[in-house]
């Protein structure tokens, strides 16, 4: 139920083209919207991906948190100084989100970044990506299982080894967690001001935080939104995000 007193979380949209009609939509995955609605005490608001035509800095000042979602699209390599293109792309989302990330950190707006969002943070701060991480020698295949059943697609695939004494290990209360895996791209060079919070057994970076930062930020390569109300760590992650967003809301309205 809508409440004008609940904190607001900005969710940046993808630009989606329906192949059967060739009509274009600005949309966010339902799993993310449901996760905010059901696993936090906040309201999700979808912001369209308008590319260069809209600077969201003044808009974001009115929000208490930001969720950067995963997507079927990949970050365009021009933004991290590489050439290999892996489609589908969503350059309007790139141009909308990437310029806002520094601002989000400057304003200390609580940020949770998932999959594509996790990669966007690394790129925005100067890092780079592998176009196809499964082609990198020694890496496992991190793509989704070949199934049309969402429960199979989002089933847990591997362990993440959390950094000893890190922020995420403290949140989890355990040195390892089991996660799903549905990504093609992955971190290559980590941005210098990011901290690794967890890795897969093949050393793929799976979780990050920001160095020397007293605001709230976690980035994860997997998809906790699918089990935001059922999985122990997913509940802890969304709960910590919600608490930080609520705190920001109180500070902003004083």
Question: What labels describe this entry?
Answer:
8 helices, 22% strand, 13 strands, two-stranded antiparallel ribbon, alpha/beta
Question: How would you describe what is shown here?
Answer:
By secondary structure, the protein is α/β, with parallel strands linked by helices. Helix content is 27%, strand content 22%. Strands 4-1-5-6-13-12-11-8-9 form a nine-stranded mixed β-sheet, with helices on both faces. Strands 2-3 form a two-stranded antiparallel ribbon.
Give the overall shape: globular
Q: Give the overall pLDDT as a whole number.
A: 95
Distance between the termini: 25 Å
Model regions low in confidence, pLDDT < 50 over at least 5 residues: none
Itemize the secondary structure elements and their pairings.
Layout: E1 8-12, E2 14-18, E3 23-27, H1 30-39, E4 43-47, H2 57-60, E5 65-68, H3 91-97, H4 101-106, E6 111-114, H5 116-124, E7 129-130, H6 150-153, E8 158-162, H7 167-172, E9 176-179, E10 186-187, E11 194-199, E12 205-210, E13 217-220, H8 232-253
Parallel strand pairs: 1-4, 1-5, 5-6, 6-13
Antiparallel strand pairs: 2-3, 7-10, 8-9, 8-11, 11-12, 12-13
